[in-house]
Design goal:
This protein is an alpha/beta fold. α2 (35-49) packs parallel to α4 (82-105) and α4 (82-105) packs parallel to α5. It is built from six helices and six strands; from the N terminus they run βαβαβααβαββα. The protein has a domain at 51-150 and 178-202: NAD(P)-binding Rossmann-like Domain (Rossmann fold). β5 (181-186) and β6 form a beta hairpin. 36% of the residues lie in helices and 14% in strands. It is globular and about 50 Å long. The N and C termini lie far apart (69 Å).
């Protein structure tokens, strides 16, 4: 695993935790908002590792940096744009750089992380909600656009995800499920590049058992 971020100490600590769990991780100091630096970082990674299997970016601001929880009427435009210029922009830069490598290698997975504000359910989430909504749109776009560039024969049919199989030319996005998380996947006929958006949601309430099933009423 290759870890990249701006804080060297945090990267070293994360790499040590991975190593303690039996994995291998190499930290590298990089700013996900620096597009040329991201491109320059990924090229040697792809060469050394042979390919890039999964790309995931977790860059984002702290809540106080975009004035949460401030209603839209009281939030200045510059603070509203903070999640867009950090989370959304870094997602685009890193996903684009990874996609360029994945197009050449003929396979890959790009992961995005959003949250329930993408579908507003409470006040004072306009800034991050707008960024999350845009990221979910970006998820579908990244799954659709590189598809036609797939080189025939690079992904054997038996390795294709059966959940993504559909008719040639048909674009498909599964409906959100009702569980604690949702996964949105878009693809073209040969689903060699998958872009997945994992959105934490609150699990549905557990139905309560009727009182009679737990404490039977005894008639005397």
């Amino acid at each position: 695993m290759f870890l990249a971020g701006r804080g060297e100490e945090g990267l070293k600590a994360a790499a040590a935790q991975i190593a303690a769990a039996g994995g291998r991780a190499r930290p590298g100091v990089i700013d996900a908002l620096d597009e040329p630096a991201v491109e320059a970082y990924l090229r040697p990674v792809a060469q050394e590792a042979g390919r890039i299997d999964i790309e995931f970016n977790a860059t984002g601001p702290r809540a106080g940096e975009y004035a949460t929880p401030t209603p839209a009427a009281g939030r200045p435009a510059d603070l509203f744009m903070v999640p867009v210029t950090t989370t959304l922009t870094s997602d685009y830069i890193t996903a684009r750089a990874a996609a360029r490598q994945m197009v050449n290698q003929g396979t890959g997975v790009i992961m995005f992380l959003t949250g329930s504000p993408a579908r507003p359910h409470a006040p004072a989430v306009t800034a991050m909600g707008a960024a999350f909504g845009a990221i979910e749109n970006l998820t579908r776009t990244m799954a659709i656009e590189p598809g036609p560039r797939r080189r025939q024969g690079r992904l054997p049919p038996h390795r294709a995800d059966p959940g993504l199989a559909h008719k040639p030319g048909e674009r498909r996005t599964p409906r959100p499920d009702d569980g604690a998380s949702q996964q949105i996947t878009g693809s073209l006929p040969q689903p060699w590049l998958r872009a997945r958006c994992c959105t934490p949601l609150q699990p549905p309430p557990t139905p309560r058992e009727p009182p009679s099933s737990r404490h039977p009423i005894q008639h005397r």
